[in-house]
From TrEMBL:
The gene is rocD. Belongs to the class-III pyridoxal-phosphate-dependent aminotransferase family. Keywords: Aminotransferase, Pyridoxal phosphate, Transferase. It is an enzyme of class 2 (transferase). The lineage of its organism: Bacteria, Pseudomonadati, Pseudomonadota, Alphaproteobacteria, Hyphomicrobiales. This is ornithine aminotransferase. It comes from Bradyrhizobium nanningense. Pfam families: Aminotran_3. Its cofactor is pyridoxal 5'-phosphate.
Length: 404
């Protein structure tokens, strides 16, 4: 480790709130699937900023769109129109088949905005008595870090000592349609759920789950809100993860890869009158829908489609999953994945996943542990077959080591 590395890490530790525990690498450059540290060492990025850099680091076309727009106009606020927002609306609606769009910045803001919108819809359209709206969520969810959201988390680390929390949420097990059927009441306005639980360790629900969920929501006039902030925009090998079961959400949340990692851009998309209940003055964001964000997002969506990244995610994801399943190692309990959203869960006796991530770092792969025993593997969607094979070789030698 050079002195400069120690310096960056020590200075962060000295001045920063310690709300993260990063792997000990200081990155200074990225291109495609690769990132470089301050000593010039190269790594294959198998986290992709939790799927935000799906298009690859510093994609030249997104970069060009950002620089061009930054020269012209960056922020107007929504007090005035700008010449990028309409085009962003048109293009995201066409891409996703949505009718209405609400632009925000972070993923958590999109979730909060959806919660506000479905509650308002519940009171004004469904006829729920004021103040009685219920939203059903799943155990082990991850929807962001705001106070409203952590209040319905089931992770003690996430919610501990941050209360009191807002009422109006009911928690059910993930992947059990019968639990949803039981939880719905006349006051239920929405079911908020991730198609695949990412932070929980890439938990894929049983086949048919979302078909049943869709039917239950339709039958009870409950808005199905899919948080596709991590699964969306090609990550699972389809544009939206909902397409794996051929269903359509009433409200879809996008973020992360919506900007290709250049800028925080998120959106609430709806197929019905949910967003139609918001009137002027009832919701907003200074930066939401700003021309720089819109120009970046337009380019990020365009390259995803034009460069075949979604098909590539399906192809390379299958190759990576098969390769991981072929690794014969006593350390591995289960390999899971859909598209390029994969995870290797280790046996409890194998030692902590973080040790394996640190060993992978030494071999030129950056991955992140989640929940102690799981290594998440989610490279940018531009990864090639050769790069997948390169990664598999290193994963195989690391996973056959014993760090217990
Ligand atoms: C990352 C994420 C969020 C929160 O997004 P932020 O931009 O970090 O606020 C919400 N939901 C899911 C499923 C996520 O993966």
């Amino acid at each position: 480790m050079s002195s400069s590395v120690i310096d960056f890490i020590a200075t962060e530790a000295r001045f920063g709130a310690h709300n993260y525990e990063p792997i000990g690498v200081v990155l200074s450059r990225g291109e495609g699937v690769w990132v470089w540290d301050t000593d010039g060492n190269r790594y294959l990025d198998c986290l992709s900023a939790y799927s935000a850099v799906s298009q690859g680091h510093c994609h030249p076309k997104i970069l060009a769109a950002m620089v061009e727009q930054a020269h012209r106009l960056t922020l107007t606020s929504r007090a005035f129109h700008n010449d990028q927002l309409a085009l962003f609306y048109e293009e995201i609606a066409a891409l996703t088949g949505s009718h209405k769009v609400l632009p925000m910045n972070s993923g958590a803001e999109a979730v909060e905005s959806a919660i506000k919108a479905v509650r308002k819809w519940g009171y004004e359209v469904k006829g729920v008595p004021d103040g009685q709206a219920e939203i059903i969520v799943c155990a082990n969810n991850f929807h962001g870090r705001t106070l409203g959201i952590v209040g319905f988390s089931t992770d003690p680390e996430t919610r501990g000592h941050f209360g009191p929390f807002a009422p109006g949420f009911k928690i059910i097990p993930f992947g059990e349609a019968a639990a949803l059927a039981e939880a719905i009441t006349p006051n239920t306005v929405a079911f908020l759920v991730e198609p695949i639980q990412g932070e929980a360790g890439v938990v894929i629900p049983p086949p048919g789950y979302f078909t049943e969920v869709r039917e239950l929501c339709t039958a009870s006039n409950v808005m199905l809100v899919l948080d596709e902030i991590q699964t969306g925009l090609g990550r699972t090998g389809k544009l939206l993860a909902e397409q794996h079961e051929g269903i359509e959400a009433d409200v879809t949340l996008l973020g992360k890869a919506l900007s290709g990692g250049f800028y925080p851009v998120s959106a609430v998309l709806s197929n019905n009158d949910v967003l139609g209940t918001l009137r002027p003055g009832q919701h907003g964001s200074t930066f939401g829908g700003n021309p720089l964000a819109c120009a970046v997002a337009r380019a990020a969506m365009r390259v995803l489609v034009e460069e075949g990244m979604i098909e590539n995610a399906a192809r390379q994801g299958a190759r990576l999953l098969e390769g991981l399943k072929d690794i014969r190692a006593n350390t591995i309990r289960e390999v899971r994945g859909r598209g390029l959203m994969l995870a290797v869960e280790l046996h409890p006796e194998a030692g902590r996943a973080r040790r394996y991530c640190e060993a992978l770092q030494g071999k030129g792969i950056l991955a992140k542990d989640t929940h102690g025993q799981t290594i998440r593997i989610a490279p940018p969607l531009v990864i090639t077959s050769d790069q997948v094979d390169w990664a598999l070789e290193r994963l195989a030698t690391t996973l056959t080591q014993d760090f217990s």
